[in-house]
Amino acid sequence: MAPLEPAGEDAIPTKLLQQLSQTPYACSSPLLPLSTRPGNFVYRGILAEPIRTQDGATAKSIIIKHYTDTGPKIFEELLLQSLANYLPSATTVTVKPPRLYLAMLFSADTHNLLPSPSTATIGRHLGLWLRSFHTWASAPEQAALRAQMWQNDPMRKIKYLFTYDSVLKVLENYPELLEGHEKTLDTILDAMAKEFERPSTEEGDGYGLLHGDFWSGNAGWSEPALADRTNELFVIDWEFSQFGHRSCDLGQIVGDLYERKIYNNLDTAISTMEGVIDGYGALSDEMVFRTAIYVGVHLISWYNRRPRKGPRVAPPEVIVAGLTIGRDFMVKGWEKDRAFFQGSGLASLFAAR
């Protein structure tokens, strides 16, 4: 999809404010931009008048997602409507699709906002939820949903473009990292390219409906002010929902968390990552090696997502080290070298059997 011209993008917040002005969701100006990609704009709006949510809480702000392409919008709405009736079991935490998004897991104030065990706890509940979602999405009752979701092929193409398709392009900037590994990487990438073309009618063997963009930025944690209410985790941004191998979901969240340790030296990310792995539960040999390969892809594709300025810019030696780890995870995952991983940062992944 073609991106809007800058003038067209600048006009979107004003247009949205006008459209909301006669609804209960009327917002004060200006809207705060949160993220953007071609055809998809996300803002936070401060409500002119707070509203009551379904659980009786008071909401003072909302998240507004605006599409210039209706294709992804249709599928995200379809999935969210289906998920409205999906109630996974909960103990001390409730995990649900969006109503509130409080992003604080890796904020500068994390240590003040969350007690130390909470990062692992959040990770575990994310893993539990992901396993539960994959199971729910594969059930016979969701056959009609899967039959409609297979049409979301453009999202599969975009997913491949920003992940596997980026690997060689990134590593070509560091020829020494490619030396001796070109053949194996070519073999991996050729195999994965074919998998992304696999018809969605071929379910089973680790394949099914995915969230498609499962990383920490799409999960919000809320700790209740009232003692008799459970904690809540919100999983948002379903526009990338698609058919694929479940290791893509698990590998993305594990890779996202491990990436924060490698490139930003954020120690809390490791406890969250290990919580995710523990929560997701037992893994088959295929799933564990496929997940490791995807973590490697994620560490390499970080190069295209990396901060170019500001305090989070990684030094050159850190970048090379991270890309080397990503390459090794891909190669050793393809070779099914369990001994290598048992001594790596993914040791907990290989203990989840």
Automatic annotation (TrEMBL):
Q: Which residues form the Aminoglycoside phosphotransferase domain?
A: 116-260
**Origin superkingdom:** Eukaryota
Q: Which SUPFAM superfamilies match?
A: Protein kinase-like (PK-like)
InterPro entries associated with the record: Aminoglycoside_PTrfase, Kinase-like_dom_sf
Protein's name in the database: Aminoglycoside phosphotransferase domain-containing protein
Species this protein is from: Oidiodendron maius (strain Zn)
Coiled-coil spans in chain: none
